[in-house]
From TrEMBL:
Organism: Rhodanobacter spathiphylli B39
Phylogenetic classification of the source organism: Bacteria, Pseudomonadati, Pseudomonadota, Gammaproteobacteria, Lysobacterales
InterPro entries the record matches: Gp3-like
Pfam families, sorted: Gp3-like
Protein name: Hydrolase or metal-binding protein
Amino acid sequence: MLKGLAITPPVIGRISIGRVVERNGKRLPEKDDQFTLTTQVQSRDGWILHPLDEALRKEAGGKLRSIPVRMLFNDPALNLRADYSLFDRTSGRPVCVGNGETCRRAGKGGVDALPCVGPDQCGFANGECKAYARLNVLVGDGEGDALGSFVLRTTSFNTIRTLAARLEYFSAVSGGLLACLPLELKLRGKSTTQSHRAPIYYVDLVVRDALTLEEAIAQARERDEQRRVCGFDQAALDESARRGFANGAFEELEEDVPAVVEEFYPDGGGEQRAEARVSTGSGLKGRLEARVAAAGHGG
């Protein structure tokens, strides 16, 4: 295994909420009220749709607001990785990744382990660091590729907090059988005073439609038993993924970062857009309101 290269789950597609559009010569993110499944290939018109997008959209009867999924791993932290992240917009390289206590920061002499005070108090980041998470899921039951995942990337505090809670709770109530639960991603909307009552959207994780939690847990136990009989070793898969993530300082490849920066770190970022839309005033209260509005705008 190449040292310094994070070994991440194989990705066969993307899950997004919105797209990047060109306005006044600038490419800016535009949010949507539905999911879109794409391949990893871009054309001049944007990301090329994945065949599953059309199939799921037909089943939904139009707008795609829920996606049947399964988790790859039993460990919640392997499915959803969330960090405070800083990218170099010029070179496209990841610069610093932290969790609020410690961080890994790239320098001329390599990668250093340093204290992390969070984006609000970090002088090094100069306001350019923000929460950033990646969720890998199997769409459907992984019929086409049992280890090929779709990745949902987000900088939304609403989505990160909700997904983190759901994964921990589902793992707890199922006795650690997270990878066997029949789940679905669901797009939810809410409004706040900071968003001027306009709806903002975030991603939730629930048991599949028409199933109770108890029925989902029963199915998970049955699926786990079937996999064990077939020789499927979930514990070994989790441990392999854990070693793979730990093999590199940064998860994102340099070739993938430009698309991440374009979608989540555009010029005139979320906080600036929120301040233009919401009259918050100055001082700590104003900054907090601007941040809440920016987090809501992120979905």
